[in-house]
Fold this sequence. Notes:
Number of domains: 1
Strand content: 5-15%
Strand order of the largest sheet: 1-2
CATH topology: Arc Repressor Mutant, subunit A
Helix content: 40-55%
Number of strands: 2
CATH superfamily: Winged helix-like DNA-binding domain superfamily/Winged helix DNA-binding domain
CATH class: Mainly Alpha
Shape: globular
CATH architecture: Orthogonal Bundle
Order of helices and strands: HHHHEEHH
Amino acid sequence: MNPKSPARPHLGDIKDTDAILLHECISALMRQFRIEPGLLAGSIYANLHANDIGLFEILATRQVWTVRSIAEALRAPMTTISSALDRLERQGLVRRRRIDEDRRVVRIEFTTRGQHLATRLQDAHIENCRVMLSKLQAKDRAKFLRMAGQIAGKEIE
């Protein structure tokens, strides 16, 4: 073990009450900041399924995506991703495109309308985060961000 890093607790060491409290807090944040799709009529999420949010975040990275690579990134079954893509394609938000070099490969990309919605979703998420962080003092924000990064497996300086 690295002497600089403290021992991490085993899952069995985490009290049920703490896990339940975190779940309740995350659920409350999702409701308060309207992060759940379709929560309110007229919301930016109103016509999106829960799976669509992650898909939009993945596609917005501007990498080359296939059904398989999206499924791997989201750790979801390919059938779930295919169903979501079918739904988004019917709404005119994404398109599947075969590449000339290898007709077996199907790339997934936003339509112009989908890109516009992805930008609006990202802007809404960032604004929600700004509002959430504004409730903390600067030193607490930095600590919170480091801890959130640790939970997410992302190194935060």
